[in-house]
Design goal:
single chain; 230 residues; alpha/beta; 4-stranded antiparallel beta sheet; 3-stranded parallel beta sheet; 21% strand
Length: 230
Amino acid sequence: MSKLTKNQKSVAEKVEAGKAYTLQEAAKLVKEITFTKFDASLDIDIRLGVDPRKANQMVRGTVSLPHGTGKVTRVLCLCPPEAETAAKEAGADYVGLDEYIEKIKGGWTDIDVIITMPSIMGKIGALGRVLGPRGLMPNPKSGTVTMDVAKAIREVKQGKIDFKVDKSGIVHASIGKVSFDEQKIVENAKEFINTIIKLKPAAAKGTYMKSIYLSSTMSQGIKIDPKTVE
């Protein structure tokens, strides 16, 4: 049996196996057991009592985190010339149309979010093979296909994220950085969890929130008692 490293021993001493912590306790612990030399992302994973294969049990939406994600989000706005000035003023990193469509066709995806308008979707449809697997395809449900591109850009830059339950019934999202203080972590997590609760499908039966885990990049997951956040 391999010997535990110094960091692994520290984690074992701090995190009690099988214990479900309060959100406040988990926010404190995740900072204590993260030993990366970079500012690690904070991730939340929620297992839901839904069957994602059924359309009436799909959980999908957006949430604006009160303290943002701590990440620099690179935004491409695909829009006609008359909307370019507003998009640039709102903070889009890249603004244009045909030239960027050609770049994407050539394999360029050095962006985090694409925002566009309904009238442009006809041109973007052909990019599905490139954008789809990377989660970059604009979608009205996530607010990335809109007439008000400037508003959408500002929201994304300020910490708006979109999420979708996966085929295993788990919703995963990054909700901040380890450098955030405990209260900011708690407030971001609560906002995310409360949004998930509001989206509970009427067709979902039994326990809706089965488990919640908070972790950082390369850290152990910390189990949270759902009763402490509902």
